[in-house]
Amino acid sequence: MSRDMTDRTFDLTRRAMMEGCVAAAAFGAAGLPRPATAAPGPNDPPPQMMPVRLTINGTPRDLVLDTRTTLLDALREHLDLNGTKKGCDHGQCGACTVLVAGRRINACLTLAAMHEGDAVTTIEGLAQGEDLHPLQAAFLHHDGFQCGYCTPGQICSAVGMLAEVEAGWPSHVTEDLTETATLTDAEIQERMSGNLCRCSAYPNIVAAIRDAAGTDL
């Protein structure tokens, strides 16, 4: 193929791409309706509902939920516990991290019905009255947040992470697997890598966790 033909093909492709982008922008700006997802058909079966008792921050809560309801949606939409955030809703950002029986999980990836009788702790349940949890206090002291959207998940994840360290769980960067890991910056960064901060407050988050853990480096 000649250079002239190659350039012409590239120009046509680039032009088509640019025209498509402009059209898409105009489509949205004009407030035109976007293609909708398929609505339930008249013959589709109704949602399967079931009673679920969740123990949230020490208090039993009785709900009747669609069996497909995630723990995240149960917390936010049915119990008005909006501290747990919905970020990606695909288990990739960590904003929805809560503690189940002391272990950190992504609430968007698990069904509420799977946690019948489990002890679930959200960010709202960490403080004792007016006394902040040590990690909450450390995040405030070290300014470990900017917009704050990821902060509840960061704090809950850090609580679970410190429990994992205390239990002797190694991470990918732990050098000596026969001893409890020392919480270096590298250890904290690796163990918290599932929690994203779009504002990039990572240095302050690491400092807050190190402070709350009582590690003086």
From TrEMBL:
<dbReference type="Pfam" id="PF01799">
    <property type="entry name" value="Fer2_2"/>
</dbReference>
<keyword id="KW-0560">Oxidoreductase</keyword>
<dbReference type="GO" id="GO:0051537">
    <property type="term" value="F:2 iron, 2 sulfur cluster binding"/>
</dbReference>
<dbReference type="InterPro" id="IPR006058">
    <property type="entry name" value="2Fe2S_fd_BS"/>
</dbReference>
<dbReference type="InterPro" id="IPR002888">
    <property type="entry name" value="2Fe-2S-bd"/>
</dbReference>
<keyword id="KW-0001">2Fe-2S</keyword>
<dbReference type="GO" id="GO:0046872">
    <property type="term" value="F:metal ion binding"/>
</dbReference>
<dbReference type="InterPro" id="IPR006311">
    <property type="entry name" value="TAT_signal"/>
</dbReference>
<feature type="domain" description="2Fe-2S ferredoxin-type">
    <location>
        <begin position="50"/>
        <end position="126"/>
    </location>
</feature>
<dbReference type="InterPro" id="IPR012675">
    <property type="entry name" value="Beta-grasp_dom_sf"/>
</dbReference>
<dbReference type="InterPro" id="IPR052914">
    <property type="entry name" value="Aldehyde_Oxdr_Iron-Sulfur"/>
</dbReference>
<protein>
    <submittedName>
        <fullName>Aldehyde dehydrogenase iron-sulfur subunit</fullName>
    </submittedName>
</protein>
<keyword id="KW-0732">Signal</keyword>
<dbReference type="Pfam" id="PF00111">
    <property type="entry name" value="Fer2"/>
</dbReference>
<keyword id="KW-0479">Metal-binding</keyword>
<dbReference type="InterPro" id="IPR036884">
    <property type="entry name" value="2Fe-2S-bd_dom_sf"/>
</dbReference>
<keyword id="KW-0408">Iron</keyword>
<feature type="signal peptide">
    <location>
        <begin position="1"/>
        <end position="38"/>
    </location>
</feature>
<keyword id="KW-0411">Iron-sulfur</keyword>
<dbReference type="InterPro" id="IPR036010">
    <property type="entry name" value="2Fe-2S_ferredoxin-like_sf"/>
</dbReference>
<dbReference type="InterPro" id="IPR001041">
    <property type="entry name" value="2Fe-2S_ferredoxin-type"/>
</dbReference>
<dbReference type="GO" id="GO:0016903">
    <property type="term" value="F:oxidoreductase activity, acting on the aldehyde or oxo group of donors"/>
</dbReference>
